[in-house]
Amino acid sequence: MLCLWLPGGSCMAALAMTLMVPSPPGALVRDTRRTKRTGTHIAAGQRGVLAVMGSSCLWEMRDELGHWSQGGPPVGLWALLPRRTAFDWITPVLTECSMEYVKSECHFSNGTEQVRFLERHFFNLEEYARFDSNVGEFRAVTELGQPAAKFWNSWEDALRQERATVDTFCRFNYRVVQSITVHLRVAPKVTLYPTKTQPLQHHNLLVCSVSGFYPGHIEVRWFRNGQEEEAGVVSTGLIQNGDWTFQTLVMLEAVPQSGEVYACQVEHPSWSSPVTVEWRAWSGSARSKMLSGVGGFTLGLLFLGAGLFVYLRNHGCHHEGS
């Protein structure tokens, strides 16, 4: 998964990638298959011992040759696996007991001038440890991550590779995906509407819907009769659509008066200038007059078209008779 994230009102861009390929510091956790937890505990000890508290779940073991075996350890049985070299771990995999995954992120500011690399480790959707290039080592996020962070920090070679990832992975891939992410532009669709159809001079909520845009950096302002409105403005923030595009709703609490003009102004990198959408507050009588005028104009066009059709038909028949 590759995405470019731009928080609202921020100049920071983040390139987030979920990697399925294991690297030395995460060899234990990255070999773990996605499964469902049923009361099993996993811990990495100070000497690199991996302890598995067995229950009724199935588990798998892989030896140095890559062979896999399955079995169901008795309830309450601890299976202790001694520390081995980085490339011949015997790794237990709980196929029905837990879910483990790693998320690697590259955060960019001003292109590649400032780059931050994060390697985040999750167990059952909860982050327990991370590597931060600004810190230079693994840090525990929860108590579960303390032995894991200590163990990974003891691997000097692997830790050196992690520190270099900000250059070998982040800056390198920035050049690769720059054309399809950094320069990608998708213009938003803007609509403005009131949430209530009640008469004027009553509290109402005006909604400015901005959808289908990329990147996520966008500015939305409200205006009433040409003056910017800052009070009573509420936003949902950026909402991801799942296809790289975003949407947001920016609402204005107002008591519309007859004749007032409300405008939603949107600025986005895909446009060279801001786009403004207006909504006019009409009273009931004014709306009736407007509808009557539109109806009369439409009816007049129909009569004009019918008369023109009859005239042309009669004129054509007259020429044929002569």
From TrEMBL:
InterPro entries per the UniProt record, alphabetical: Ig-like_dom (IPR007110), Ig-like_dom_sf (IPR036179), Ig-like_fold (IPR013783), Ig/MHC_CS (IPR003006), Ig_C1-set (IPR003597), MHC/Immunoglobulin (IPR050160), MHC_I/II-like_Ag-recog (IPR011162), MHC_II_a/b_N (IPR014745)
Membrane topology note: Single-pass type I membrane protein
Keywords: Adaptive immunity, Disulfide bond, Glycoprotein, Immunity, Membrane, MHC II, Signal, Transmembrane, Transmembrane helix
Subcellular localization(s) per the UniProt record: Membrane
Pfam short name (any one): MHC_II_beta
Residues spanning the membrane: 290-312
Occurrences of domain Ig-like (ranges): 188-276
Signal peptide: 1-16
GO BP terms: adaptive immune response; antigen processing and presentation of peptide or polysaccharide antigen via MHC class II
Protein name: HLA class II histocompatibility antigen, DRB1-13 beta chain-like isoform X1
Gene: LOC101705375
